[in-house]
Amino acid sequence: MPTFLPRRRGIALVAAGAAGVAAIAAAIVIPSGAADAATACTWTATKLPALPGSANHGGAVLGTDGAGTYSGYAFLAKAQHAALWRAGGVVDLGQPFGTPTVAQDVNRAGTAVGWSIAAGNVSTAIVWRAGVAAALPLPAGSGPSARALSINDNNLAAGWRTDAAGHEVGVIWSLAGATPTIVRQYAATDLNAVDAANRVVGLRRDTGGGFTAIKGRPSQTTVDALRPAVAGESAIATATAGTWIAGAELVAGGLGDRPVLWAATAPRVLNGGKASLSAVTAAGTAAGTLEDPNGNPAHAAVWPGVDAVQLPDVGTVSTASSISDDGTQVGGSWIATGVGVNPERPIVWTCG
């Protein structure tokens, strides 16, 4: 499996019980709002190119600018490099602060954010401007690690850093000036995404060991909790666009995740069984991964409405991690069978 950590974070699973099952059934509704083109089309898969000079086609798409450029990672031999794909080609962003290196997201100006891991499992949050990497700033007293996970077209980036005790702290960085600056921080949180309206979403780590899905804005000193579909369950928010927030809750019995969309603050559970959402459009089309009965990623999918549409299989396992603004392109990875080292491959599915 991939060596990167995707935008979605794993959560501990507990049983929901009979009352939870009834609440889930009541929560299933079809998302409202304008429909994306993804509502009626034939999906085709396109394998993305390897890095120049590399015979290893390993890699994965993790993010997109929404308009045809994709971010992620690719391999040169066994070395994991940050990479961008655009106009049919691939750009090597290298390993500026260690390996593995990941370009987690990119905006329409071509500015990418991500992270590298160096010796001692220390990760550095990175911004690439015109292909040139720089470490994102941390306040005095921070722990050693940080990761940038999302960037919008307003040059706001979101992610997390560790504090002196090793606990994660959600961070919003401004990349608008020549020198990146920290705009806001939230203790005990991870920020997974920032949208065009500067809304950030993620998770808060609760004292009992669970997670609460959250949203906020740079102007807020605290984050707001999102109500779970089943009271008391853990949930995480992974993506946001328009009025929508995408994420996951746990499945009764601890077998996987339940795909959830929030419209404003109301949770809406989508069909498809055990699944997780990684991306969403302003019209409410979500992309994510259908899970097998053991909770492992199995099939990339989109949700133009309440029902999942499985994307065409290339290998035996695939994952979806990004979606274009109009809902017609989904980026992710597939697993090449029989490949012992770096079996994941970057891919884009197109709705036509």
Would you kindly provide a written description of the structure presented here, covering whatever features stand out?
3% of the residues lie in helices and 49% in strands. The chain is globular. It has one helix and 28 strands. It has 352 residues and is mostly beta strands. The relative contact order is 0.17.
How far apart, in Å, are the first and last alpha carbons? 30 Å
Instruction: Give the SSE order as H and E letters.
Output: HEEEEEEEEEEEEEEEEEEEEEEEEEEEE
**Could you state the oligomeric state of the chains shown?**
single chain
Largest sheet properties: 4 strands, antiparallel
Poorly predicted runs of 5 or more residues: 1-34
What is the CA-atom radius of gyration, in angstroms? Answer: 19 Å
Total helical segments:
1
Keyword list:
352 residues; mainly beta; four-stranded antiparallel sheet; 3% helix
Write the layout of secondary structure elements.
Elements: H1 17-27, E1 43-47, E2 59-64, E3 70-76, E4 79-86, E5 89-94, E6 101-106, E7 112-118, E8 122-129, E9 132-135, E10 146-151, E11 156-162, E12 168-174, E13 181-187, E14 189-194, E15 200-205, E16 211-216, E17 224-225, E18 235-241, E19 244-250, E20 257-263, E21 266-269, E22 275-280, E23 286-291, E24 297-303, E25 309-310, E26 318-323, E27 329-335, E28 344-351
Antiparallel strand pairs: 1-28, 2-3, 3-4, 4-5, 6-7, 7-8, 8-9, 10-11, 11-12, 12-13, 14-15, 15-16, 16-17, 18-19, 19-20, 20-21, 22-23, 23-24, 24-25, 26-27, 27-28
